[in-house]
Design brief:
The protein is mostly helical. It is built from three helices and no strands.
Length: 82
């Protein structure tokens, strides 16, 4: 190996590589969020996915928690890591 090739290899190894978790990890995270939402609804005595004319406050809290979890998935999973 000549000096130029060695220098290029060491330079490439020294530069931090950026990686993202990708769509599979995002899907797994979203599935976890939905599982928590189903548990939240069941704990309140309701079925997740059934439309009600007026949502009780406990279901609104479940929906807010679901939204927060999904935002956290997008923020963490697609954030570049070094």
């Amino acid at each position: 190996m000549n000096f130029k090739s060695l220098a290029l290899l060491l330079t490439a190894a020294a530069v931090p590589q950026v990686a993202v978790a990708g769509p599979l990890a995002y899907g797994i995270c979203q599935t976890g969020c939905n599982g928590l939402a189903v548990a939240c609804y069941a704990g309140a005595g309701f079925t997740f996915g059934v439309a009600l004319p007026l949502a009780p406050p406990v279901l609104i809290a479940c929906n807010v928690a679901l939204g927060s979890c999904m935002v956290a998935c997008a923020t963490v999973v697609f954030a570049p890591t070094l």
